Amino acid sequence: MAKRMTKAELQASLGAFNPVGHAVLAFGSDAVAAEAKQALIGAGFADQDILAFTSAELFGDLNEMLRNVSDAAGFGYEINLMRRYVTLAGEGCGWLVVYAPEEEQIKSIVAVAKRFAAKSAVHYGRLASEDLN
Questions:
Q1: Cβ neighbours of residue 41 under 8 Å, at least 6 residues apart?
Q2: pLDDT 10s digits, 22-42
Q3: Which of 11, 13, 40, 110 has minimal CB crowding within 10 Å?
């Protein structure tokens, strides 16, 4: 089972962004992300399962990461996600990173992502990342 990451661990992992067992959600604003967080808590997630970030907090160095990524990574899904995240961060999205190692939790996340018009929703599994929207 994946380990629940703390805010500090997640931010420290950005060089190799792959929060296994977590979903990364981008919303149109920090306010919408806050509403989505409350909906997730209402759906049974614990407060410590949901990390909220502004774009600047989560991806302050994402452009630097993109500049330093290897050429081989340029063909993979992860680099496409990083590019998506850079674009969304530039739009000032609000972000939630939700600990969700179980399939039933992912279903709840999908419902909240749809309800609050998530601009991106990705679940990071052990072997692959999956778009949820």
A1: 47, 50
A2: 999 999 999 999 999 999 999
A3: 13
Q: 49 — phi, psi (to 5°)?
A: -85, -10
Report the length, in residues, of the chain. Answer: 133
Distance between CA atoms of 48 and 87, rounded to whole angstroms? 27
Distance CA 119, CA 41 (A): 20
Q: Quick one: how far is CA 127 from the chain centroid?
A: 17
Torsion of CA 119, 67, 53, 2, to 10 degrees: 90
Q: Which residue, among 119, 131, 10, has the nearest Cα to 59 in the 3D structure?
A: 10
What's the token pair of residue 129? Answer: 């990342």
Torsion of CA 5, 42, 89, 6, to 10 degrees: -10
